């Protein structure tokens, strides 16, 4: 038989109770009344019910920072309350603490050392067990550079590549295994102060083939060894790995000429053109040198000969024409490269043929000036052309007539 209970935080009169009872006449429903006396008795028996019924996110936050009765009235009160809350959260360890931080644009907790000897007195470690397939070759290589050699590059490991996280530390607050997480490694350290660096290439018989000067951009170390990253002319970037207990290393090179001057690109290209004949490289940093053997069979040219020739032409024009080019994203077409070579030859005072021209036509106006006399008598030529986005002018150039 169904029951129906009317709950009202007041006491009913006899007439009100009779009226409620008549509501079930002619039905099988039994009626009851729960008034204020019975409610008070139940609340006394279950005090948590009232706290639950009037709960709110604001009250919960205020209770946690020690302000159960009212919200902070001033910024200082809010600051003091938050400080008390954080202090309450930092009683779990004598050596480590948690503090609020913004990581990767998101608020969260940051673990920090309370004492300089924290790592020795209470060591902590996290082991990231990872899974990589054939399609993850580049990610696996970057992961090894970050963890193994301390490379200061952000690393994002998706959840499918993270098998588990194993925490090794005090059993009550830093121990256990978790899964189902993505992992991001975000480098946080002081900006590296660049140091002068030099790279030299050598043939198998020790002959010096070429060299470049540059600046170190980052250094670090990891579980397997250390690394040095060096930039040359902001065109060539080299990442050197040095395994522990080894005086030699290996290196990766990245070539990017876009936006750089012709002089800078030409220097780098000339050096890289020595690499197919080189047996080893030597990196010198702060007076200390290390060597690396070049991988056998690797194609180490910067680009095809067209790039080398174009970079050399731009370099010469920059020096003789007092201009600076921004190296284009794509190598220009053949016609544009030919005009670049012509501009270079004219500035060097050499004879240059004009492509696609077998004759010249002109309309005389009746007046004679010095420029026209030079053109008719001595075969003078004038260059006024845009090369790689910059105008190159040669007011007096000469050809050889036969």
UniProtKB/TrEMBL annotation:
It comes from the Bacteria. This is Uncharacterized protein. It comes from Frondihabitans sucicola.
């Amino acid at each position: 038989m169904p029951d129906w209970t009317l709950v009202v935080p007041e006491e009913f009169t006899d007439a009100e109770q009779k009226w409620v009872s008549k509501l079930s006449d002619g039905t099988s429903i039994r009626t009851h009344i729960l008034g204020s006396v019975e409610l008070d008795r139940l609340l006394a028996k279950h005090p948590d019910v009232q706290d639950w019924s009037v709960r709110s996110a604001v009250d919960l936050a205020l209770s946690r920072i020690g302000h159960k009765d009212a919200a902070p009235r001033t910024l200082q009160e809010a600051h003091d309350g938050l400080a008390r809350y954080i202090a309450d959260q930092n009683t779990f360890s004598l050596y480590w603490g948690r503090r609020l931080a913004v990581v990767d644009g998101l608020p969260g907790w940051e673990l920090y050392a309370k004492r300089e000897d924290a790592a020795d007195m209470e060591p902590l470690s996290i082991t990231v067990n990872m899974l990589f397939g054939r399609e993850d070759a580049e990610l696996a290589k970057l992961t090894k550079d970050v963890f193994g050699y301390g490379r200061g590059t952000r690393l994002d490991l998706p959840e499918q590549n993270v098998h588990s996280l194993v925490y090794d530390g005090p059993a009550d607050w830093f121990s256990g295994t978790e899964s189902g997480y993505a992992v991001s490694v975000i480098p946080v350290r002081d900006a590296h102060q660049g140091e002068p660096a030099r790279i030299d290439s050598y043939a198998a018989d020790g002959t010096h083939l070429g060299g470049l000067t540059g600046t170190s951009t980052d250094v670090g170390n990891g579980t397997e060894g250390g690394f040095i990253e060096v930039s040359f002319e902001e065109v060539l970037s080299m990442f050197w790995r040095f395994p522990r207990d080894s005086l030699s290393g290996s290196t990766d090179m990245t070539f990017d000429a876009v936006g750089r001057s012709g002089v800078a690109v030409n220097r780098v290209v000339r050096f890289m053109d020595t690499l197919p004949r080189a047996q080893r490289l030597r990196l010198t940093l702060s007076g200390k040198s290390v060597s690396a053997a070049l991988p056998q069979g690797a194609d180490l040219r910067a680009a095809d000969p067209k790039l080398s020739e174009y970079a050399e032409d731009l370099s010469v024009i920059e020096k003789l024409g007092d201009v600076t080019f921004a190296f284009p994203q794509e190598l220009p077409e053949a016609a544009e490269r030919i005009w670049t070579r012509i501009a270079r030859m004219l500035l060097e005072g050499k004879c240059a043929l004009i492509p696609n021209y077998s004759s010249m036509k002109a309309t005389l106006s009746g007046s004679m000036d010095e420029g026209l006399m030079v053109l008719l008598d001595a075969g003078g030529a004038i260059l006024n052309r845009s090369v790689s986005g910059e105008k190159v002018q040669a007011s007096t150039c000469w050809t050889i007539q036969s």
